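Researcher: Going back to the complex we discussed earlier. I've cleaned up the inputs and rechecked each line, so this should be the final set. Can you rerun the prediction on the complete assembly and write out the structure?
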Amino acid sequence: MANQRKEIMKMLADFGTVGMTVAFSIFIGVGIGYLLDHKVFGGRTAPWLTLIFLGLGVAAAFKNLYMMTKRKDL
Amino acid sequence: MEHPILFISLILEMLHLPLPHGEVGATLLEKIDSPHMTYTWLVMAFLIIVPKLTLGKMEMIPGKGQNFWEAIISGMEGFMADNMGREGARMMFPMLATFALYILVSNLVGLIPGFLSPTSNLNVTLGCTLIVFFTTHILGLKFHGAGYIKHFLGPIPWLIPLMFPIEVISHFARILSLSIRLFGNIMAKETLLGILFMLAGAYFAPLPILVLGVFVSFVQALVFVLLSILYFSAAMEHAH
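Model: Rerun complete. Updated structure for the full complex:
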């Protein structure tokens, strides 16, 4: 019983982060792209790097979801 | 909204020490005197002094105080050993136990009127999270050397230009999600308690939120430590 509850707590912690990880991956991607566009290249490449890194952020979010579906211990 | 009454700030004001007027003070002394700093020190003093007082002399047959602390420490070590193996638990135990006790006490201290949770400030949780983030990568470098880069490259060689930014982004997303979850939960608890107390404190309106606050404090401390354990063990194991 105690063991089972521990497992449930662990999964709660694990899967409670899914939504946040999706949101923050996208934000981090857009943030990196925006910094590269406007601080490193001085706006000459805007908006292309922002868009590319937005795509990478979305890909990172989906990669996290995909890794979660491949877990063996469920 | 009403300004919360914080008793340490009141004491400092009586001593004629400068208090910050906004969120962050201008001078160094004002920064040190800001509420989340003073309450962090209160929590630290609590965690240092109370075990010293209750532990007493260490004995072969434990008394009441020693029994209590031994139960807490061995429970935490067992929990870590379940998740990251006995060796890893032994190595990382001091840091993770410090995080667990510090975050738990600083979450709970905000439930008492006149106190403030240090973790309801984003800077405090961000500090904890950055420690976890850098420790993760130092552990990875220590266990795998230069081969730690394989963790970031994914399984297929020609996908490396795509996988590397993705992995880096998901590692940075961990910082945000770990710090903002703890900060958001505790700040929501504090704000909700403040508002309900101001609106209908005489009718015990904050009582249900106080009960939920105890639950949230325990769960958030547990989640922070558990996610740190998961990140550490992922950095220690071999790349898949």
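Model: Worth noting: The CA atoms of residues 36 and 118 of chain B lie 5 Å apart.
Researcher: Good, that matches what I expected from the previous run.
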